[in-house]
UniProtKB/TrEMBL annotation:
Protein name, UniProt field: ArsR family transcriptional regulator
GO MF annotations, alphabetized: DNA binding; DNA-binding transcription factor activity
Domain of life: Bacteria
PROSITE patterns in the record: HTH_ARSR_2
One Pfam family here: MarR_2
NCBIfam families in the record: HTH_metalloreg (NF033788)
InterPro entries tied to this protein: ArsR-like_HTH (IPR011991), HTH_ArsR_DNA-bd_dom (IPR001845), HTH_MarR-typ (IPR000835), Metal_resp_trans_reg (IPR051011), WH-like_DNA-bd_sf (IPR036388), WH_DNA-bd_sf (IPR036390)
PANTHER family linked to this entry: ARSENICAL RESISTANCE OPERON REPRESSOR ARSR-RELATED, HTH-TYPE TRANSCRIPTIONAL REPRESSOR CZRA
Tagged with keyword Transmembrane helix: no
Length: 121
C-alpha cells in the first residue's frame, strides 16, 4: 500500500489496490479546501440563482439581477459582495452602473453542467 501515509500504515485494508486508488483520487488538501469553499458558495439557493443569472447574462447590474432572480436588491448586493471577495465574480464600472460577470472558470464549468429547463411563456 504505497500511497497510504505512514501514520495510517498500521491499519488493515480489505483491498489494498482499492485503498490506493481512493487515495490517488483525493486531491491535495489545499485543492480540496478550495473546492469545498466553491461548493459552499453554491449551496445557498439565492447565491446559486444569482450565479446562474450572472453566468448566463453577465455582465449584469444589481437591479437587473434583483428583477431576474426575485431577490431584493440589498440581498443581491450582499451576495455579490461575498462572490467578489471569493474571486468568483468581478465588478465592472459602466458610468454610474456596476455590472458583474463570472470570472471563476471552475464555477463556470459547474454551472454549465446544471440543466436549465424553463418554459418561456
Amino acid at each position: 500500500m504505497h500511497l497510504v501515509p505512514e501514520d495510517r500504515a498500521h491499519r488493515r485494508a480489505i483491498d489494498e489496490h482499492t485503498v490506493c486508488d481512493a487515495i490517488a483520487g483525493i486531491a491535495e488538501p489545499e485543492t480540496v479546501r478550495g473546492w469545498a469553499a466553491r461548493f459552499s458558495l453554491l449551496s445557498d439557493p439565492n447565491r446559486l440563482s444569482v450565479l446562474m443569472a450572472v453566468h448566463r447574462a453577465g455582465p449584469i447590474a444589481v437591479t437587473d439581477l434583483a428583477l431576474a432572480t426575485g431577490i431584493n436588491e440589498t440581498a443581491v448586493s450582499q451576495i455579490l459582495r461575498l462572490l467578489r471577495v471569493s474571486g468568483t465574480v468581478a465588478a465592472e464600472k459602466d458610468g454610474r452602473i456596476v455590472r458583474y460577470r463570472l470570472v471563476d472558470a471552475e464555477t463556470a464549468g459547474l454551472l454549465e453542467s446544471i440543466p436549465v429547463l424553463r418554459q418561456v411563456v
